[in-house]
Amino acid sequence: MTEHASLYGGCIDASLLSENTSYAKVLGKVPPSTSVLDVGCANGRLARLLKDKGCRVVGVEPDAALAAEAREVCDVVINAGFLEAAVAGLIIERFDVILMSDVLEHMPEPSEALKCARGLAARGGLLVVSVPNIANWQIRCSLACGRFRYSPDGGLLDWGHIRFFDLESARRMLVEAGYQILEFDTVWSFPGTDLVGRIPLVRRLLRVIPSLAARVLPNLFGYQFIFVARLPSEETWLSQ
């Protein structure tokens, strides 16, 4: 197994999935019984939960080991990079939902990937995107201390991240690629929650305060940004 496969493998237990995760939030944005293009599907960990919602899932995954695992879950898996697959015409369907969950930051040309995705949307189709927030308070504190360290264990500074976004740059990228943003949400990160969250009363407060803080100051307390977007109706129709 490659290092990439070992980091992005594993399974998601839906019964233990916190609502404050990108997995839970993007899954909640995908309507049941729809056709989904899962870009960067890894080993099919999200696809498995999408299948539980009655979705047909086509995955695109560049890592051969992960793609082999994903074939046990997805209806179809294309073992290639997304741009490579799109340009080569390997993706021949049109989809109700195009899912890009924590993948754009791994791409050299994320804007081009978004533009390629436009031609793969069915009429009225949705784009669901999750990206990490480089302006989160944790990164700011690290920089204030003179530290910028990539992590082999994932997170905001995952070793595979080659593009970085704050809220404005993420929004601008989507709009400039031709999309209309319909919904915006955040996965929050709040100082001290790991420690004080063990106290029952505080745990109840933590259901409200960090979420509110992330709504008011998303660039500071947002850990990941979730967008739901679509093409203007005329352009979507013309792409058929």
Written description of the protein model:
By secondary structure, the protein is of the alpha/beta class. It has a single domain (3-231), classed as Rossmann fold (3-Layer(aba) Sandwich). It is 38% helix and 21% strand. It contains 13 helices and 7 strands. The chain has helices at 3-8, 22-29, 45-52, 64-70, 82-87, 110-118, 137-144, 167-176, 193-196, 200-205, 209-216, 218-221, 233-238, and strands spanning 35-39, 56-60, 76-78, 95-101, 121-132, 180-188, 222-230. Strands 3-2-1-4-5-7-6 form a 7-stranded mixed beta sheet, with helices on both faces. It is globular, with a radius of gyration of 18 Å. The N and C termini lie far apart (39 Å). The model is unreliable at 236-240 (pLDDT under 50).
Keywords:
disordered C terminus, 7-stranded mixed sheet, single chain, Rossmann fold, alpha/beta, 21% strand, 240 residues
The CATH C-level name is Alpha Beta
CATH superfamily: Vaccinia Virus protein VP39
Q: How many discrete domains?
A: 1
Helical proportion, percent range = 25-40%
- Radius of gyration using CA atoms only: 18 Å
Q: Name the poorly predicted regions.
A: 236-240
CATH topology: Rossmann fold
| Most strands sheet | 7 strands, mixed
Strand arrangement across the biggest beta sheet:
3-2-1-4-5-7-6
Write the layout of secondary structure elements.
Blueprint: H1 3-8, H2 22-29, E1 35-39, H3 45-52, E2 56-60, H4 64-70, E3 76-78, H5 82-87, E4 95-101, H6 110-118, E5 121-132, H7 137-144, H8 167-176, E6 180-188, H9 193-196, H10 200-205, H11 209-216, H12 218-221, E7 222-230, H13 233-238
Parallel strand pairs: 1-2, 1-4, 2-3, 4-5
Antiparallel strand pairs: 5-7, 6-7
